Amino acid sequence: MAQKYPLMIPGSATNDGYLKVFAPFDNSLIAEVEAADNAATDRALQTAYALYKNRDAWLKPAKRIEVLTKTAAIMQKRAEKLALEAAREGGKPLLDSQVEITRAIDSVKSCVETLRTESGREIPMNLNAASTGKLAMTRHEPIGVVVALSAFNHPLNLIVHQVGPAIAAGCPVIVKPAETTPLSCLRFVEILRQAGLPEEWCQAMVVNDLAVAEKLVTNNRVAFLTFIGSAKVGWMLKSKLAPGARCALEHGGAAPVIVDREADIDAAIAPLAKGGFYHAGQVCVSVQRIFAHESIAEELAEKLTTTAEKMKIGDPTLAATEVGPLIRHGEVDRVESWVREAVSAGAKLLCGGKRISDSCYECTVLYGPPADAKVSTLEIFGPVICIYPYSDIDDALTRANSLPFAFQAAVFSQNIDTAMYCYNRLDAAAVMINEHTAFRVDWMPFAGAKQSGYGVGGIKYTMRDMQVEKLLVLKSKGL
Description:
Blueprint: E1 3-5, E2 18-22, E3 29-34, H1 38-53, H2 61-77, H3 79-90, H4 94-117, E4 122-123, E5 134-142, E6 145-149, H5 157-169, E7 173-176, H6 183-194, E8 202-204, H7 210-218, E9 222-228, H8 231-239, E10 246-250, E11 255-259, H9 265-277, E12 287-293, H10 297-310, H11 329-344, E13 348-351, E14 364-367, H12 374-377, E15 384-390, H13 393-400, E16 405-406, E17 408-412, H14 416-425, E18 430-433, E19 449-450, E20 453-454, H15 459-465, E21 467-475
Parallel strand pairs: 1-3, 6-7, 6-9, 7-8, 9-10, 11-12, 11-17, 12-15, 14-15, 17-18
Antiparallel strand pairs: 2-3, 4-5, 5-21, 10-20, 13-14, 16-19
Helix pairs in contact: 1-7, 2-4, 2-5, 2-6, 3-4, 4-5, 5-15, 9-10
């Protein structure tokens, strides 16, 4: 029988029914989650805003450290179950879900480390007549109520990246996970409460009506929105924020890779395959467009195809599975349609190109898709890699930079001059050398450029966004 989860808004007396959560692999019902209506949402906002306005009740840094430290310890004890359940609800293979849980635990610890080490600064005074006899310094205060809207593809670690910094910064937070994968979020919020966080400081909700979510985001009591999801929704919500509200947006892209003629092809295959087919390509910085020098393009394509054909696709809860399902059956239809369009327009299908089931699609490699095909111009978000031969490096860079998205990119080359030439010319917030585009550790800056995002992610960067640097100027005869 499917488990039922209550609304995590203290004192709420109304709801909008239940949201059903299905496993993407076999469409089995996993759980039903109580959904928020407008009244419940307003109750959450009232509670969070009242906490922020009562400065005497703010959580001291020592309490925040205590809660987050206990949270990491509880997560460590439950890591195996958290990984299995994340794989079940999100479709990411168990092996990769285990890595995600490990990262999530480390992300919580990074919140503590940042809280211990980040500080204000002294502003130079006594430099002229106006500043003589003065001392100036800053400290960080919570920005206010944080609203976090998250995506499905990393159902625990993304939540930790949004909620953890809010708790560490001292902000009351209301989190709305993706409707397809809310359970990992709800478990994390429950762990926070078990670790000693008062319920009111972190409230969680799902919705059946997206208009309710929009009202949550655009309410004038919200000081900061952290959003991970589609560009269309993110930019729309940003345009509707209340005056003074700040935000961070993390969208997707169509990550480009330059493979130079001097690249170590054999060493490049494994990371390129991992970067393209990890989580069935449902990652915002997945390897999508590989621009390979014409002298090695066919060799690269052949070896990448051989690797793709060997990958085990299926039930994400099994240890042997390397590639799981797409999040919805409709996504399989979409990916299949895009691949067929590209092949019809002249792309060479080297492997894949077919659905395995209603939820799974073969790892697919396309050679030479047209520049105007959907697989060349839009984010695939599926297990598809495109290879484009080039003769001139500047032409490859122009094509790599031709889209309105820019997130992470990669260059494979044994020539440091070529690698740095590409680094300096790629439109990207990060460029990996001899590593795939989906590389990330949770303490590094992680940001989309152009239409791919707004602001900088990463634990300490998010914490900084969720705080206000407040200046103190002290005039004293003793100075």
